[in-house]
Structures are given as structure tokens and as C-alpha cells.
Amino acid sequence: NKGQKCIIWARFRRDIRKIYNAVKKAGYHPAALLGGLAKKTYKRQKLYFKKNPECRVLIGQPQACGMGLTLNEASLVIYYSQNSDQRMRKQTEDRCHRPGQINNVTYITVAARHTVDEAVHEVLCGRRTKQEYMMKYKATERVPRGFLELERRAA
User: Fold this and answer.
1) Are 80 and 7 in contact (CB under 8 A)?
2) Is the Cβ–Cβ distance between 8 and 97 less than 8 Å?
3) What is the DSSP secondary structure assignment for residue 12, as one 8-state letter?
4) CA-CA distances (angstroms) from residue 148 to 52, 55, 113, 135, 137?
5) How far is it, in rounded angstroms, from Cα 33 to Cα 7?
6) Contact 110, 78 (CB under 8 A)
7) 116-151 confidence digits (pLDDT tens)
């Protein structure tokens, strides 16, 4: 949509770099908010997204975008990768739903079938618990790669 701004959430720096380069190659002027940025750079990237009409894409790392960040300029949110922390998901969703939002917000979650991304999405949507997923996949011996690691990190 002409003029519509978008946030792409990704957990890992490698993914953020790939997305940033692909968005730039497609002719857009992205901003990025991720861990490890100097405060001055972080602030500059945030303002670039908020104030510059040419910057229509923000690639963000949820862990680096702490409390109180308002991104109501965006009306499209894409989850490229996420973890199973429902509070983190809710917080990233709430970034766009702040006073001043004048558009409906559309959310898109990227998740391939039979992968850890599908398992995480099912848990976040409340369709299954982590334990139900583990039982289902152990019974069929198709545990999604990475899901066991996800369980260990969450504990």
C-alpha cells in the first residue's frame, strides 16, 4: 500500500541482516532496531522510521525494543521469527496500537509446516501448550528441529 509502513520482527541478527539487505535491494529505505546498537544510533534509527516518509520498513528485534516504544506509524506487522513468550508477542503487537494509530493493523506470521515456527505459532495462538506439542511430536517421532532447544531455553 502506498505510504503504508511495516514492521518486520526477527529474533536473530543473521536474519535481520538478510532481511535488511533484501529490503534495501528491493528499493526501500529500511531502519533497524536491534541489540548492541549505541543509544545514539538506536534513537536515530527510530526517528528515521517515525519521521521519514521514505522509510517505510523497520526491521526490529523484539528483545531490543523494550517497554514504552510507540510505533503507531506502522499498519502492517510481519513476524519473520519469534519465540514462544506470549508476553513478548503481545508487547510487539501493542507497539502499533497506541494513541495516534489511524489505520487497521494487519499481522502476518511466517511459519512453515512441521517446523519449530509452526509449533511456536500454535503455542502463541493458544491452540496448544508446549507440553501438548511435545507429546504430539514424540508420539509421531517428528519433533520439529529446534523445538527441544526452545523448551530448554524457556525453562
Assistant:
1) no
2) no
3) S
4) 42, 38, 17, 12, 11
5) 10
6) yes
7) 666 666 666 666 665 666 665 554 455 555 544 444
